[in-house]
Amino acid sequence: MTDFQPIQLIPPVAHAAPDAEDTARADLYGLLATLLYRAPDAALLHHIAANRAHGEDAATPLGDAWNDLCDAASVTTAEQASDEYQQLFVGVGKPEVLLYGSYYQTGFLNERPLVALRDDLARYGLVRQDNVSETEDHIATLCEVMRFLVAGEDAGVSNLAEQQHFFSRHLQSWVETLCDSAAAHPQACLYARVAALLKAFMAVEAIALEMH
């Protein structure tokens, strides 16, 4: 079975995804996983700021949300990003914005949705590492699993049917609530834009996966 980590569950893949659209989807899932697992460093902030969408891509809700994040990244230091991440998602005691699916689905942590999630991860051959403190229903982990299902090389697991199943079962019902909570936090600046990008991307994914 594959060692399970919130980030870099699978190595970056350039050719496993069957087309450019899936490659872009996998890359965005991977970026969101990284941003939601830890604050970005200076290099990642610079990379985001330097890759604005242009033309038709910029004229969509997803492109608009991406460019808003680019603008925020261009004026945010790594120290500011770290402070904001700590304020929103770590804090002292209970975080001000929780990143765990079970909480949004049931009102509590470590509830029945986590059991169902672990069943699917086991079916995919994914095992959480002992040194990972976050439970598997962390939003970063779920984004990374979606990247795996989009861009992995094992067609028996990484296929459209499993993407549809995992998205509808473990993300679709609650992720918009998380995004709204993060965006509405008075201390959210960079992460208000991350939340808006996640929300826009999830809306696109919901439509695209239902159409197939």
Automatic annotation (TrEMBL):
Which key words are in the record? Chaperone
Q: Which InterPro entries does this one have?
A: DMSO/NO3_reduct_chaperone, TorD-like_sf, TorD/DmsD_chaperones
* Transmembrane regions: none
- The answer, when asked if Cytoplasm is one of the entry's keywords, is no
Superkingdom assignment: Bacteria
SUPFAM superfamilies in the cross-refs: TorD-like
Report the PANTHER family cross-referenced here: CHAPERONE PROTEIN YCDY, DIMETHYL SULFOXIDE REDUCTASE CHAPERONE-RELATED
Report what the protein is called.
Putative formate dehydrogenase-specific chaperone
Recall the taxonomic lineage recorded for the source organism: Bacteria, Pseudomonadati, Pseudomonadota, Betaproteobacteria, Burkholderiales
